[in-house]
Structures are given as C-alpha cells and as structure tokens.
Design goal:
The chain is mainly α and 362 residues long. It has two domains: 15-31 and 170-244 and 264-361, no CATH class; 44-168, Serine Threonine Protein Phosphatase 5, Tetratricopeptide repeat (Alpha Horseshoe). The protein has helices spanning 17-23, 49-56, 59-66, 73-76, 98-104, 108-117, 135-141, 148-155, 173-179, 183-191, 223-228, 268-284, 300-305, 312-319, 325-331, 340-349, and strands at 28-29, 231-232. The protein has a two-stranded parallel ribbon.
Length: 362
C-alpha cells in the first residue's frame, strides 16, 4: 500500500479480481459492495453512547456522556490513519461517528460544537471500509435534501480535506452530487470555497452520472446489455435490492402473476430531463471525456443506450459532441467487446418476457 500523505488517503486495498467478478453477477450501487449487510436488518444500527448523544443535538448531554470517559480516540486523530490500529479501540470499531450522526440528524450546532472540541472533520470509519464516507461527503450523499449548512461548516473548516475520497471505491463528494442529477448543487460545490474540480477524480467503478437509477431502468431483456451493465446510481442504503430474476424461472415460479419489470414511473420523465442536463453540461464544460471508460470498459454512450427507455435525442447529441463522440459510438468496445452501437441495436431487438434464458439462476 502506498504511503498516506496529510491531504490524501489511499485505498485500504484495491478491489480484487474476485470482487470485480462478483459485481458482474448482479447490480450494485456504484459507491459500495453488491449487498449491504444492513439491508435486511429490522433493528436500527447500533451506535455508541457518544454517537447517540450527538444525534440528539444537546451539548450538555454530550458532555455528560463524555464525562464518563468513553473512548473517542479514533474520532479525534487527523488525518485518519490508513488502517485500523493494532490495539483496537471502541471508537475505531464504530461504523459511524458523533460528527456523522450530527450531520445526519441535521444538528449543525452540534457539528460546530464537536469541531470546537477537536473532533476531526475528516473521520473515516474504516471498520466498514466499503461504505464509509467522509463527513463532507455524507452531508451530500445521505441527507435528503443535502445538508448544505453542514457542508458549508465543514468546507470552511481549515482542517477539512475537500479532496478526500472513500476507501476502496475512490468515490468523491462531486460524484455523489452528480449521481443526484442535481446540477445546481454540483455547480455550487464547484464554485464554492476550496473547490477541487480541477482534480476531479475518476471513481474506480461506473461513471455514475449517466448510469441508470436502478435495475428497473436497465433494458434487462437485451442479452448484451444485461451482461454489460452492473452498477446503478441509487443512494438508497436501506431498502433497495436488485430484482430477483431467478424467481421468474418457470421451474421456480411460485406465483402465477409476476410483478412487472422495468415499469415506467411518474418520476422517470423528470429524472431523464435532469440526466440529459447533467450529461450535456459535463461534456460541454470539458469535465467529462465522452470516451472515458469505467472499470467495465463502458463509456457514457454505453450507459445511455442501455436504458429501458433510451433518450434518442440525448444519444444523438452525445454522439455529435466534440472529442470523438461518433468514433466512440462505432469503435469503443467494453470488456465484452461491445460498442455503444451494438448495445443500442441489441436493445432495439429485445422482447419483453417474464423469463430470459440468459438471466442467471442461482
């Protein structure tokens, strides 16, 4: 592992070939592992006393808990070490922190109080390396709507590292803003203090500002598309799971009437409008290269033509964009050897059915 500088945090470890292979068997959130262990928990996540007190937002209560001298060492060290300590502490084993809990609860006065106490604005909960977000990123990714007050407090703190990314997947705050398809938010972050847009990092996985929201927005009925697309941009960390295609196999079918796949919703039109706006701005501003591939070899055009409802106008404009859009359309192959043009043709020929032989049966 490379050494960690004061203003950077390398991955805990690169994604292994097996981990990448596992992602090819299903659909995953772009920012984390295929299956979150907490997805099927009925109880709320376990939190340390200081984390719970922070979420309440009462500094006096927090001080009362803190007077008992619970461990808080991991949350006060800055920058976060690149690995867990040899002598594990309670705070190092927590999957959140008082700073994160204050942000998620919308208690910005508590956030200020914690920073004044010397809590790090760059805490990473490495006990959960595939789903730990820096506080700055959590304010954008996990708050609905984004907690801009907390974001502004953090971005103006002299110790905050605005270039910090998540371990393992190398996801940056700007990637989450783009995944929300919130162009004003993305521009606000870019134009704000300490912008790191000039060093906009590429994530190790899908270029998610044009990935489908979830697998209901992918053309699951086209074999080349089905085998090429693996990541979605939903930020739902609690309830979303991929469609259980295996239950549709005739030999396993329990119910006569199967729930429909890829049905259009009332939000789809607005989502498509925002996606087009985001994609065209990223390409037009020079932020995104039309031919930039992700770890699967997919370019923006691969993703756009893999949608269950392809925006033909947007595809045409991306093909016509400067930087070789038409060349990418005809010649840029993903890891399976498919060009955007081939995926587009595959999608047009696809027929909707309750079962497809190429769907994996586990």
């Amino acid at each position: 592992m490379a050494a960690m500088g004061a203003h950077d945090l390398d991955q805990l470890a690169p994604l292994t070939a097996r981990e990448i292979s596992d992602r090819r068997k299903t659909f995953s959130r772009f920012w984390t592992e295929p299956v979150l262990p907490t997805t099927f928990f009925r109880a709320p996540p376990t939190r340390a006393a200081l984390e719970t007190a922070s979420s309440v937002g009462d500094p006096a209560l927090f001080d009362q808990v803190r007077a008992a001298q619970p461990d808080e060492s991991w949350w006060r060290v800055d920058p976060t070490p690149s690995q867990l300590p040899a002598n594990l502490t309670h705070s190092a084993l927590c999957t959140s922190s008082p700073v994160h809990e204050a942000i998620l609860a919308g208690k910005t006065h508590m956030l200020r109080y914690l920073l004044d106490l010397g809590y790090s604005p760059n805490i990473l909960s490495l006990a959960a390396p595939t789903r730990c977000l820096p506080p700055l990123t959590a304010a954008i990714a996990f708050c609905i709507p984004p907690n801009l007050e907390a974001y502004n407090i953090l971005i103006n703190h002299p110790m905050t590292n605005p270039a910090l990314r998540t371990p393992s997947f190398s996801i940056h705050t700007l990637h989450f803003a783009a995944a929300r398809l919130d162009l004003p938010l993305l521009q606000q972050i870019n134009n704000g203090p300490r912008s790191c847009w000039h060093n906009f990092p590429r994530p190790h996985l899908a270029p998610h500002r044009r990935t489908p929201f979830d697998d209901d927005h992918i053309n699951l009925f086209a074999p080349k598309i089905f085998s090429s697309i693996h990541d979605v941009r939903t930020l739902n960390a609690k309830r979303w799971t991929p469609n259980r295609l295996r239950v549709r196999h005739p030999a396993r079918r329990i119910h006569r009437v199967l729930p429909p796949l890829c049905e259009e919703t009332s939000e789809d039109e607005e989502d498509a409008r925002k996606q087009a706006e985001m994609v065209l701005w990223l390409l037009g501003s020079g932020t995104q290269d039309v031919g930039a591939p992700d770890v699967y070899g997919n370019t923006p055009l691969h993703y756009l033509v893999s949608a269950i409802r392809v925006d033909e106008e947007l595809v045409g404009r991306v093909r016509a964009s400067r930087g070789g859009g038409e060349e990418v359309w005809r010649e840029s192959m993903n890891e399976l050897g498919y060009t955007p043009q081939e995926l587009w043709q595959d999608g047009r020929m696809a027929v909707r059915q309750d079962w497809k032989s190429f769907w994996t049966v586990e």
